[in-house]
Amino acid sequence: MATNWFGSAHESVTNAIANAPSLQAVAENLGIKDFHQWASAKAFDLHSAVHEQAVELVKTKVKGEFGNEVIDMLDALSECMRKISEELKLKEAKFGITLALPLVSMQHNMLERPDVEGLLTDRALLDEAAYWVDFAAGAYGKEDIKGYDKASVNVAIGEKSGVEVTVAYLPAKGVQMPGHFVAVDRNNREVVLGIRGTTTLSDALTDAVGEATQVPGCPGLLAHKAMLASAQAVLEKTRPALEQALRDHSGFSLVITGHSLGAGTAILCTVLLSAECLE
After folding, report:
1. In this structure, are residues 251 and 189 in contact, taking their beta carbons and an 8 Å threshold?
2. What is the protein's major site of localization (predicted)?
3. Looking at the DSSP assignment, which residues form a beta bridge with residue 182?
4. CA distance 111 to 276
5. How far is CA 164 from each of CA 43, 170, 255, rounded to the nearest angstrom?
6. What value does the CA radius of gyration of the chain take, rounded to a whole number of Å?
7. Which contacts of 132-136 are long-range, i.e. CB under 8 A and separated by 24 or more positions?
8. At what angle do helices 49-66 and 35-43 cross, to 10 degrees?
9. Half-sphere exposure of 149 (CA within 13 A, CB side)
10. For position 7, what pLDDT does the model report?
11. Burial class (CB in 10 A: 0-12, 13-18, 19+), 206
12. Residues with Cβ < 8 Å from 84, sequence gap 6 or more?
């Protein structure tokens, strides 16, 4: 898809050059026979004004599809890959990062497994977890209900009795902002924040920027950079609805749930809110 956009931008700039009489005259004086091919190469001369025009065209198309934040995200991804390359000393290696990844996987698989306490046998805890998994799934909505996010989430949850979806945002694009919803579960006396997992190409970009960064208010705690940014963005967007729901329903507590990208974001939302409570 990005290749098509880039090709379209390239063609637009090339045609603009090809139709410029002054450049056509220059080409004739230089004895250039295939003017269109020369114009195409000229369009991507490094540091040329035309090259900058092409870059801006591509940026505009990418922003239109993924949102204004995508360029910053791509820059962050580039920086993340640079650091990985330095850490793995890929410049000194005889193979690229694609061949290095299996070696990283092999090294990881050779590490000692962490100690575990055995299987979880608390039936009450398992039943509770199973109940909230439906809300994590609800954050994906239903494909056949587009444009009506609240209804889409409600159907995906399973239309549970006593549950009201008050806010729902299931965007098709936009990095560092996974889909999410706020609901009130009157039967269980809970306010719920559900966060969607990886669904769009924008979400995949968010997943990719995995550089460790400091969590505000939690000295020594590092987190996935883009997931942390997503958690901060989701809380900023939903805070008014969460606070209103908790005010309107005295004695209710807050449950934050999610799957995949949504699970990591949900954990970080919990950490950020807990850090605020300790301040």
Report:
1. yes
2. membrane
3. 167, 193
4. 36
5. 56, 17, 14
6. 25
7. 132/192, 132/255, 132/257, 133/257, 133/259, 134/158, 134/160, 135/183, 135/192, 135/194, 135/255, 135/257, 136/194, 136/195, 136/197, 136/257, 136/258, 136/259, 136/262, 136/263
8. 70
9. 16
10. 47
11. buried
12. 90, 97
Among residues 161, 173, 243, 227, the alpha carbon closest in space to that of 195 is found at 227
pLDDT at 61: 72
Q: For the chain of 279 residues, list the mean pLDDT of each consecutive stretch of 10.
A: 45 52 60 62 57 67 69 69 64 64 78 81 90 94 83 90 93 80 96 91 75 88 90 94 95 95 94 81
Q: What are phi and psi of 121, to 5 degrees?
A: -120, 5
Q: Are 195 and 139 in contact (CB under 8 A)?
A: yes
- Quote the pTM value: 0.66
Q: Taking a C-beta distance cutoff of 8 angstroms, is the pair 227, 265 a contact?
A: yes
Sign of torsion over alpha carbons 36, 39, 43, 49: negative
**In contact, 149 and 141? CB cutoff 8 Å:** yes
Give the CA diameter of the chain: 85
pLDDT at 236: 95
Give the tokens for residue 213: 């960064």
Secondary structure (3-state) at 94? coil
Confirm or reject CATH 3.40.50.10330 for domain 125-278, answering yes or no.
no
How far is 3 from 151, CA to CA, in rounded Å? 36
HEC readout, 148-176: CHHHHHHHHHCCCCCEEEEEEECCCCCCC
What are the residue ranges of CATH 3.40.50.1820 in the chain?
Answer: 125-278
The answer to whether the Cα torsion of 84, 87, 93, 99 is positive or negative is negative
